[in-house]
Each structure stands twice: as structure tokens, then as C-alpha cells.
Design goal:
Helix content of chain A: 55-70%
Radius of gyration of chain A: 14 Å
Strand order of the largest sheet of chain A: 1-3-2
Shape of chain A: globular
Order of helices and strands of chain A: HHEHHEEH
Structural class of chain A: alpha+beta
Oligomer: homodimer
Strand content of chain A: 5-15%
Number of domains of chain A: 1
Number of helices of chain A: 5
Largest interface: A-B, 37 and 37 residues
CATH architecture of chain A: Orthogonal Bundle
CATH class of chain A: Mainly Alpha
CATH topology of chain A: Arc Repressor Mutant, subunit A
Amino acid sequence: MYIEKFGCDMRGMLSFLILFLLSKKPMYGEEIAAELEKRRGIKPKAGTLYPALKELKKNGLIKGEKKGKIIVYSLTPEGHKTAKYTKEYFCKCFGDVFKD
Amino acid sequence: MYIEKFGCDMRGMLSFLILFLLSKKPMYGEEIAAELEKRRGIKPKAGTLYPALKELKKNGLIKGEKKGKIIVYSLTPEGHKTAKYTKEYFCKCFGDVFKD
DNA sequence: AAGCATATATAGGATATCCAATATTGGACA
DNA sequence: TGTCCAATATTGGATATCCTATATATGCTT
């Protein structure tokens, strides 16, 4: 796989992707993991995903609502605002990558 | 700045950005640094940029041609191929971030 | 030729990022 | 009620990523 040969697996984008996904609709852990797998080809392990969610919660960007066994995560108002700004930042950085 | 509050500075995308920039045109170090600053708001330090270039060169993706004081970097054939694949990967991951 | 600024380079270390392994929780269903 | 499974969670550590500080090289100006 060329990504591996490249030596850059685009680490550091996990939290951004999670925030972006939740900005589209609330999801629970396994849903998020499945969506990430569809995009990146790699499914984040539990020890990767949940600490990331915990950090986002700690920063007040997402909240978790318990629905029986699962926890549905969604953005807080602060999270929406941050998602908006980070998306703008992202577009400024990478906007023209898509125009090829 | 919201990126800081977010706690995600999108690390891990530096090499990808460099590869992408060089896929558009050959550049030397300071040119690359300036372009990165324009996009990210932060200019990479010498101790960040040159090791990254060295790694890309080691992997056979870029080559450096000395022109007096400066070194002009450009993609190798392998680098072009890798840029193409990484761009596709990138689009698969983040393609819909721009549709908002 | 000497001094200076710019460009490139390296070593060492701090932090971020992620995973493996393991633990816990809650519901389903016998 | 007890067992099983899926979902969530935590700890500890490995690696990636980047910066600070420092060093080297090259060309320009005087």
C-alpha cells in the first residue's frame, strides 16, 4: 500500500475526523469506528477511539448520552463552533488537493 | 485560536503537504516553508522541514538539485506515483469535508 | 579577503498519537 | 439468576512528529 511506503499515515487527523463525523449526525462508538474504517481502510482500535472521545468530551466539544448499553455522542454548541472553525482551517490547508 | 483549543493541530500531514506542493512545481526549502505558512498559519522551523525533506528523499520520492546556494526539490517518478495514490487516499478520507 | 545573511543540515529531546492488552459495564437470553 | 456478548473504558508503552539549539555551507557586499 502506497500510504505505508510513503511513511505518512496521516496521523493526527483522527480527532478532526471524529468531530467532523459527529457534526453530520450523532453516533455511538462502534458506528464511528465503522465509518472511520470505511474512509481510512483501517478501523481504530478501542484503545484509540475511546481515549479520543474522552479527550473531546473533556474539552467540552462533545457529550455522551447513554441509551441502554450504548452511548450516543453528539456535538455541544462549543463543538459545533469548533467544527466550523477547524473545517475552515482544513480547507485553507488542503482545499486545492481536490481540484485535480 | 480554535485549532489549539481543539487540541488537534493536524500533525502528521506535513509530509503529505510537502509532497502535494512539490507535485505542483519544484521548490526549494524556504519556498516550501513560506507556502506552508500561508496555508497553516505556522511556518515550519528548519529543524522540522529539512528532516522531512531528508526522509522523503530517503524514500526515493523527491530529489534535490543544487542551484548555487539553494537546493531545488522535485518529485521523482516514484514520488509522482505516490502523490497520486496519497491524494486518492486523502480524498476518500476527507472528500466530503468540502461540501459544506 | 572578511564579515554577514541566507539556506541547509543534524542531534537531542518533548509531546502527540496510536495500539495491545486488559478491565468493566449493561443487556440478551437461556 | 447466571452466562455470554457487545460496547465502553483504562493503562502502559511504542512510535511518529515536531521543535530548540546548534552547526555547516554558500553567495553577496564591502
